Amino acid sequence: MAETDRRQGPAAEGEPGLGYEQARDELIEVVRRLEAGGATLEESLALWERGEELARICRHWLEGARARLDAALAADGGAEGGMESVVVSRTVERVEETAFEAVEAEAGEGGRG
Q: Could you tell me which residues are beta bridge partners of residue 4?
């Protein structure tokens, strides 16, 4: 069972110490390598599997951040935190979208060089 630690974020299977930024940066590199081509089928499959795991790690971090923010708002504002919770939720969703758009953009730039 994965646990959430406030300092390290959600523990991911096999990579409990990998931070969000580390996972994101490695994911960008994996996507670049896949888009560049030239890898064998076996290498490409291994890269794809690693990319899936890294994406899972990033999602866990973002879900953990959302849960922490929701919990803080609930403890801080109780019933009054309804609108704040919506704002926080939308903010986290934008961070998620921006993060994965950045991965796609970085990979696209690297694969076209």
A: 10
